[in-house]
Amino acid sequence: MVRLPYLTALTTLFSYGILFVFGHLRDFFRKIFDWSKSNNLQGYAPICLGYEDFYTRRLYLRIQDCFGRPISSAPDSWFDVVERYSNDNNKTLHRTEKTTKCLNLGSYNYLGFAAADEYCTPRVIESLKQYSVSTCSTRVDGGTTKLHTELEELVARFVGKPAAVLFGMGYVTNSAIIPALIGKGGLIISDSLNHNSIVNGARGSGATVRVFQHNNAPHLEEVLREQIAHGQPRTHRPWKKIIVIIEGIYSMEGELCKLPEIIAVCKKYKVYTYLDEAHSIGAVGQTGRGVCELLGVDTADIDIMMGTFTKSFGSCGGYIAASKEIIQHLKRTCPAHLYATSMSPPAVQQVISAMKVILGEDGTNRGAKKLAQIRENSNFFRSELQKMGFEVLGDNDSPIMPIMLYNPAKIPAFSRECLHQNVAIVTVAFPATPLLLARARICISAAHSREDLIKALEVISKVGDLVGIKYFPVEPVKPNKVKHLKKIE
Amino acid sequence: MALAMVNVTASVLDWVSSYFDAPTRAVVFGVPIDGHLVVEALLVVVILFQLTRKSYKPPKKPLTEKEIDELCDDWVPEPLTPQITEDMTYEPPTLESAAGPHAIVNGKEVVNFASANYLGLVGNEKITDSCVGALEKYGVGSCGPRGFYGTIDVHLDCEQKIAKFLGTPDSILYSYGISTIFSVIPAFCKKGDIIVADEGVHWAVQNGLYLSRSTVVYFKHNDMKSLENKLEEVTRRSKHPEKVRRYIVVEAIYQNSGQIAPLDEIVRLKEKYRFRIILDESHSFGVLGNSGRGLADHCGVPIEKIDIITAGMGNALATDGGFCTGSVRVVDHQRLSSSGYVFSASLPPYLASAAIAAVDYLEENPSVLSKLRTNIATLFNELSDVPGLVLASHILSPIVFLKLKKSTGTGKTDIDLLDSIAKQALEEDSVLIATTKRSSLDKCKLPIGLRLFVSASHSESDLLKAAASLKRVAALLIS
Lengths: 489, 479
Description:
The structure holds two protein chains of two kinds. By secondary structure, chain A is α/β, with parallel strands linked by helices. Helices cover 42% and strands 15% of the residues of chain A. In chain A, a hairpin with an 8-residue loop joins strand 1 (78-85) and strand 2 (94-104). By secondary structure, chain B is an alpha/beta fold. In chain B, strands 5-11-10-9-8-6-7 form a seven-stranded mixed beta sheet, sandwiched between helices. In chain B, strands 12-13-16-15 form a four-stranded antiparallel beta sheet. Chain B has helices at 2-20, 36-52, 65-74, 125-138, 153-166, 177-188, 203-212, 224-237, 263-273, 295-299, 328-337, 339-342, 349-364, 367-382, 411-429, 460-477; strands spanning 26-28, 31-33, 102-105, 108-112, 170-174, 194-198, 215-219, 246-251, 276-280, 308-312, 322-326, 389-391, 399-404, 431-432, 434-435, 449-453. The longest helix of chain B has 19 residues, at 2-20. Chain B: It catalyses: L-serine + hexadecanoyl-CoA + H(+) = 3-oxosphinganine + CO2 + CoA. Chain B: Its cofactor is pyridoxal 5'-phosphate. Chain B: Its EC number is 2.3.1.50.
């Protein structure tokens, strides 16, 4: 949970206030200067009216160089960031030919499969030559290959459910599955910090949507009791079905969900559960099977488990794993299965190979080593950051660590200064996070070595001192750690 | 005693009436009353007394904990999915090779008319080589959204290439074909805007229209008269034309029927009524026009007149993903407000390099387009006299659409008949064709049928074989 000190809140609000005032002043002058110029819209309404894009024009464009940085190599632990320059105060950015080699703390590369891998890449190239880049067809027409059926069985076995179905993109998986499961007359209760794809899917389904406080099982129970007792709004008929949607690891907080409590509540009230394991599959758990394994929940208790292959498996696409009846129903009605191009065969082969490595079926123990490495890396990094006095969110074992920045001026300062020192960091502000709670988010990978992490800690500590984000007191140093402290200073 | 009371009352009343000296007397129930002002004063006192009393509200009894417990115990949810019956299980044919014009299904070689491989680029050497290079350099996935180090230089090169090819200022890449249109529409259309859309658009467009929360008006499929009527009606009813954004949403080649939209007519209407156009060119990019630049090239309309063009690259370009192109303002706006772009991982780099190689191929070999046109014409000719089925698509459309001349009764029996035609064609003649499958969430009401996707790499014998097979099987199964 975020503990926001009062002084910080006041200064952040003050900073946003100043930016707001300046933005409005500039808009005012722009209106005066544009009065003379003729309006070339000729009766069409403008694409953005009034203050709809005020945030984009006046706040985001100032720090545009901190986002969307292009890279020119694989997103491995070290990568090449392309340098950009701007001639008009950050309104447009132009690429140059120069690149800088930076430490990658921003890509979702939890198990290190992002770059060419010794086991996976030869098999991927072979499948490319056999099945070609794309099948140009939907799964039901002529786009199902042997690789797709093999991967569906492998995913079902890996996750621990009877059957699975694949989709070409994780975002579409959520947006197209939820309308197929529930419609008008149903109720969706989702966590307040759920991802945009779940929100879109819930809105597109036509069901009523209610929100419960993030990770708060007692509040979920309260909401459930009230909703079941009152029934549908206005008609008070009983709900047709209720689905509770939660995520395994929340990507902006780095927290694990309180799965055992929430599942207990759902079983008591006979509601269905949908678990989105986009970030946790392959990254947490003893053998990489996700949040269920880590928290000791039986997979048969969760009705539908969803995940993506982008993060831990270094590929693209998503899957749904559930009972055979649900999967057969989805294969008949889900629009993403019936209308969308099937997943590209080389990407399917990459997931098959990555899963085999994780399960140890390739004959080596690289999978187990990777899983141990990412756990060790995450715990080491998090504890060191907390000792330095940063405010770090998230639970132990989770590879995502947000560091709170709060103040809008610190976002570009932190990001640009770290890039100068060859560390690539991701900073997140509104609208992905609440307005006052801007943060820098670090994603640890199994490909990072201990030296990489120590270098990152040095740079972050130095920049943190410059920018002033060590909101908590530095932990008192024990006598035998004096050498370590000297290195950081 | 009573007399004394009466005397006292009379003297008080005399005093009061003489004091007020009212000229008129009140009449209550036909009886004249002296001192009517006293009556009126009493009435006022009674009214004030009643007003100050609390009004009667039926007592609010919230449900007790026990009652809520009972309701929760009694509630029985519907099963998550309906019962699966035996005839609902459908196993699609599994390919064991690339989806080119000839593919291997269940060990047999079949002629493949189910892949939208219009330019025959599946299995092309140059594309495969560029993909191998990209795979070795970048790996498979891009491991991040575009805003957080997921932008790879091949993405930027691909965007510029497509923009240059089409002649527009800029373009933006999406990571999946169908997510393109249902992210673009909500980015531009908000609550209160007006959209006029064709009733035959496919599910992804319908989903985008629903998510945008704008007012949507449908016009009859590909009927310009109906479009004009709807535009007139909407413009008459709209109150603030400067504040309300208005869009027309059409597809270049409709997936559900194979018709081609008459773009010059639509542009004329758009300029007359001041609407913007959103055009989905998934099946016409790389197919229509002398150089494959799509519907604008085919109809001779300058590309600047079309505001927003979207397309999925999973068809002619034989790769995956989608793009959207238009003016600089249109493209820049999507980089922050299009949810499928901002909140999703970016396109895998090898697919982007395949797209670049495919556009290069199209620029260097425009003759492949005339080969495609000849193939479509041949097949169209051959299929014009299939017993029981009638051609419903446009003569230039690479999706050749056959629908039943006469429906067999219900929608379900129609689907079963078409499925059995396709199955028999595959098993007996080794011709793989696709039937339309509608999801239960799809609101499109156009007739279903058989679809054949013609490719430039089909040979004449392939086309003749498919036509002969269809004629034979249709004659057998359609009475």
